[in-house]
Every structure is written in structure tokens, then in C-alpha cells.
Amino acid sequence: MKDKFVKIIGGGLAGCECALQLLRRGYAVRMYEMRPNVKTGAHKTEKLAELVCSNSLKSCEQSTASGLLKDELEYLGCALLPLARECAVPSGSALAVDREEFSSAVERELAKYENFELVREEVHSLDDVPTVIATGPLTSPDMAETVGKLTGKDRLFFYDAIAPIVSFESVDMNFAYFGGRYGKGGEDYLNLPMQKDEYEAFYRELVDAKTVVLHDFEKEELFDGCMPIEEMAKRGSDTIRFGPLKPIGLRNPKTGEKAYAVVQLRKENVAGDCYNLVGFQTNLTYPEQKRVFSMIPALHDAEFVRYGVMHRNTYINSPNVLDKNFRLIGEKPLYIAGQLSGVEGYVESIMSGMIAGISMAYELEGRLFEVPSGVTIIGSLARYVSTRQLDFKPMNANFGILPQIDGIRDKQKRKLAYHDRAIESLKAQYGAQKP
Q1: Do 121 and 232 fall into the same domain?
Q2: Does a structural domain hold residue 13?
């Protein structure tokens, strides 16, 4: 065991990935998690690595940015993705997990290490111990204040929304069918079709429904990646019909009928007794969610296991204070990982935790970890959060942050070329001697 130990504040995805990277390298880890003593506005359990908004870690296809990011992480020895695959629930080409099973698997993995200690208490201030702050978007007020002082900036924030979950037995299967888009994915998605008159009635009630009141400055901070369904709908009647309710590629296998709009539900757990409404993040009041969403024919008698909510997500203006290793600029070994650092998304948070953990281990050994090159999603995100810009906003994996590849007109082939270039770059940079 190494002489030094590292303090990790926060037991979310970034904190757990960071801990496992350090533990694998022989370092002792003391993780602080404030739940259940201090609750948040979104967590439902006290478990580590709890997935809050959705149970999906997005696509695994190589032609997607999220699929490329997963392949990059697995090449570098990511700890959490193999656990996620063990706890996967059917979700087409996406990686979705049973939340409780996944959290339990992460806790079991951490418990294998004798030099891992979990402390259930809130941290209010910092000391000189090498530390990784991974408190996430639901950082407590005291820690947010501490981080704000460290960064020299007032903390920034946006508002995030969570989709509701319904029980499967309450879905009327006379108005629903299983199937993936274009016949892909088998029975991974439960489709709830709506005809034009049904959709238009639903749409009218959705845009006029009562929401939880937000202050004017809060409305301006809604993050587009988790835009509430009612706010999206107010942009035009076809906005959600060409978004989360798009009927393209879906046909009722019983009747052969196409629908005007289709709501998709995805399994929330392995048992398959709970489904979440895909893309239905919302800020509607609970009674309005029940009233409006029950207008969807298959949900006329739906039992809502969990209603959607909104909560504040905190992040720092990282380009002014972090380097590409997610290290706070200064003399002390202090890193900030997860969504607090300005990355957006589950897998992106895992990535930042992995880079912070490896980089911390290298620093304690007197070395510098060279982050993957800018042709990778990892390298591009690391450079995004550390590069000065006028209007910094949280960023998730996307091909737009990569250097362009010219000369390939076919979009699918170009995306696969981004993938191949990134993996080849990792092989050239690290070879068999992976970090």
C-alpha cells in the first residue's frame, strides 16, 4: 500500500470511478458522502453511484459520440463501465442499467479494497490532504461556497429536469406495443402511439399546464440537454413530435398502422415492472403530470411510481481554474471531477473521475499524466473545460468538439472515421503500456 491516502468528496459516478482508479494503483482512499445525513432534491437512496435523472448511459454504437467515448474509456481501463454492462437492462443500442443493481455492484467493487474507507458525513471545508472534489451538480451550499472561493468566481448554475416513471402493469397494452425504431432492439422499448386528434388535445393541455414556479433568472438557466417537455413544446406543435415523440421508423406490429406521434417508455429495472417516459423531463406540478400525461391513450390509468422534478445543478467556470487533467491550478494536489467541473452527462462524469484519479496517482508519484490527444472525445472534453471562452456552458460528448475530418461526404462513414482515428490515437499514445 502506498504511504499516502487521497480524500474523495462525493460518492457519485465521478467519485467512485476516481476511487477505483486510485485503489487499483495501491492508494488508500477515504470517500466522504453526505447522504443519508444530508439529503438532496433529487437522490432517492443513500447508495453510491446513484443514477438520478435517467437510467440510460446513452448509445454504444461506434458511429455516435457517446459510443466512441465508451470505447475510449474501456481502452484506458475504465472501472465503472464493465459494472454497468453487468447490470444492463434491454435498451436497444443504448446502455441502460437497473439503477439499484448498478449502485450495489459499485459498492461491492469498492468494498473489495481494504484501503477503502467510506465516511457518511458532509464536508464543509478543505485541508492539505490530496483531494478530489466530486460532489456533483447537487453540491451542498457549504461546499459550493468553498468551491466558489477556490475558483475566485461566483458559482454558476442551470436547472435540470427528471422524467416520471410509471408501473408497467398500469399501462393499457391495448394502446401500446413493444418494438425498436426500424425494427431494431427487439422489445427494448414500449411504444405508446397517438393519432393526430389525440396528440393535438394532449399538446394543448401540455403547453397550458401548471408548472412549479421558477424565478426569471432561473428560467434563463435551463440546460438544453434536459429541457422540460412542456418548455420544448412551447417552441411549436411539431417540436416534440420531431423530438422525443417522433413516430419515424415505428409501426404497430398488430395493425401495421403508423401513428402521428409516439411516446416511448424504457425499462427502469431488470424486473421490468417500472418504465420511464423517455424524453419527458418535466417541471409540471404533480397533479398536472397525472392529468396531462394520462391523456396519452395507453396511460389513461397509469400509476406514477415517481413524478418528474426539477433541481438546481451547480458547476464551476472551469476554463479559468482547471487544467486539462481536471486539476485546480495551484500548488496543492486538488482536483475537481464530475458535473461540477463542467462536463455534462453520466459517462462524461465517469471520464472526468477516471482522468482525475489517474492524474492524482501520477502526481503523487512525481509524474505528469498526459491526457489523450484532442482527436479523442476524452481529450477534447478535457481541453474544453480548461480552455478560456467567453460564455462557458456544460458540455457533453459530441463530434462537434473534435477536429474535422475532410473528404468523407457520407455522414455515417465520417462518424466511423472519427471513431477509428480516436482509437488509433490512443494506441499510438499509450500502446501496450496503458496508464
Answers
A1: no
A2: yes
**What is the number of structural domains in the chain?**
2
Q: Which CATH number covers residue 146?
A: 3.50.50.60
> Around 150, how many Cα atoms within 13 Å sit in the side-chain half-sphere?
24
3-class secondary structure, 63: coil
Query: Which residues are within 8 A (CB) of 410 and not within 5 positions of it... i.e. 6 or more apart?
Result: none
| pTM, to two decimals | 0.76
* Whole-angstrom distance, CA of residue 336 vs CA of residue 134: 6
Each residue's pLDDT tens digit, 78-118: 999 999 999 999 888 999 999 999 999 999 999 999 999 99
Which ranges constitute the DSSP H helices of 273-410?
286-293, 346-364, 377-384
Dihedral in degrees, nearest 10, Cα atoms 172, 178, 181, 183: -150
d(CA 229, CA 346): 20
* Closest by CA position to 90, among listed 169, 190, 173, 176: 190
Q: Which amino acid is at 411?
A: K
pLDDT on residue 216: 44
Which is it for strands 88-89 and 274-277: parallel, antiparallel or unpaired?
unpaired
Q: In this predicted model, what pLDDT tens digit does every residue of 44-91 receive, in sequence order?
A: 788 999 998 788 999 999 999 999 999 999 999 999 999 999 999 988
In angstroms, the CA 172 to CA 301 distance is: 8
